[in-house]
C-alpha cells in the first residue's frame, strides 16, 4: 500500500492554506496518515532556497536562475520527504508542486516549453500528483488579499501582467489534464470549501 499525493495550486491570495487544512481533515477522517508540504521548501535545504528565491536582491535575478532554484528545491523535497512518505502509506498534501513552475516560470516569465520539460523530466522522472486542485482567482483580487497579509516578496512584486500570464497558463494546463480540477476562488470561502469537499470525497471513494 502506498499513499496519494494531492496538490493545491493557485495564485497568491487564492486561499490555498485553508483548503489544505480542509483536505487534511477529510483524508484523516478516512483513516489515512497525512503530511503537508510546501514548495519551494519543506526540507532544511529547500527552505534555504525558498528564502533565497523570495528575497529582493540588489541585482537582476535571471529567469533561468529562478527556474533552476525551484527545481533544486523540488528535487530535495521529492527525495527526502514526498517519496518516503508515500512509500510509508502516508498521504501528502502539497502547497504547490510542478504546476507552479509551468505557470509562473513558463506562463509568467515566458520560459520555453523545451526548457521546462527538460528540467521536469530530470527532476521528476515521470512522477506526478494523483490529484491537483487549482484555485482560480483574478490576480488583482488575489494580490489584494496577499497584500493584506503583509509586505509583498520579490515574486509578488512582478506586476499584474505577470500574474495574468501565470493565470492564463494555469487555466490552459488545467483544461488539458484530467487530474487537475479547477475551482473558482472568486466565490465566498464556504462555497469554495463545499466544492473542495465534493471533489476530495469523490477522490477518496
Ligand atoms: P507561496 O507558497 O507563499 O505562495 O510562495 C511561493 C512563491 O513562489 C509564489 O510567489 C509562487 C512562486 N513559485 C514559482 O514561481 N514557481 C514554483 O515552481 C513554485 C513552487 C513557486
TrEMBL record:
Q: Does the keyword Hydrolase apply?
A: no
Q: A single Gene Ontology molecular function, please? A: dTMP kinase activity
What Gene3D superfamilies has UniProt attached to this entry?
P-loop containing nucleotide triphosphate hydrolases
Positions that bind ATP? 10-17
Give the top-rank taxon of the lineage listed in the UniProt record for this protein.
Bacteria
Q: Does the keyword Transcription regulation apply?
A: no
Q: Which reaction does it catalyse?
A: dTMP + ATP = dTDP + ADP
Record-listed E.C. numbers: 2.7.4.9
Family indicated by similarity: Belongs to the thymidylate kinase family.
Q: Report the PANTHER family cross-referenced here.
A: THYMIDYLATE KINASE (PTHR10344), UMP-CMP KINASE 2, MITOCHONDRIAL (PTHR10344:SF4)
Summarizing the function annotation, the protein's role is: Phosphorylation of dTMP to form dTDP in both de novo and salvage pathways of dTTP synthesis.
The protein's name: Thymidylate kinase
Amino acid at each position: 500500500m502506498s499513499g496519494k499525493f494531492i496538490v493545491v495550486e493557485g495564485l497568491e491570495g487564492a486561499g490555498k492554506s485553508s483548503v489544505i487544512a480542509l483536505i487534511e481533515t477529510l483524508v484523516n477522517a478516512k483513516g489515512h496518515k497525512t503530511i503537508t508540504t510546501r514548495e519551494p521548501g519543506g526540507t532544511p535545504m529547500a527552505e534555504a532556497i525558498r528564502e533565497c528565491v523570495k528575497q529582493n536582491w540588489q541585482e537582476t535575478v535571471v529567469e533561468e536562475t529562478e527556474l533552476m532554484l525551484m527545481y533544486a528545491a523540488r528535487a530535495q523535497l521529492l527525495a527526502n520527504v514526498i517519496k518516503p512518505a508515500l512509500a510509508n502509506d502516508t498521504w501528502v498534501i502539497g502547497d504547490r508542486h510542478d504546476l507552479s513552475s509551468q505557470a509562473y516560470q513558463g506562463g509568467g516569465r515566458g520560459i520555453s516549453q523545451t526548457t521546462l520539460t527538460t528540467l521536469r523530466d530530470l527532476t521528476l522522472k515521470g512522477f506526478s500528483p494523483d490529484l491537483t486542485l487549482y484555485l482560480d482567482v483574478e490576480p488583482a483580487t488575489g494580490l489584494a488579499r496577499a497584500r493584506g497579509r503583509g509586505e509583498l516578496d520579490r515574486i509578488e512584486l512582478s506586476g499584474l501582467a505577470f500574474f495574468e500570464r501565470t493565470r492564463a497558463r494555469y487555466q490552459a494546463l488545467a483544461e488539458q489534464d484530467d487530474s487537475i480540477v479547477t475551482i473558482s476562488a472568486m466565490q465566498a470561502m464556504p462555497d469554495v470549501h463545499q466544492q473542495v469537499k465534493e471533489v476530495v470525497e469523490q477522490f477518496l471513494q
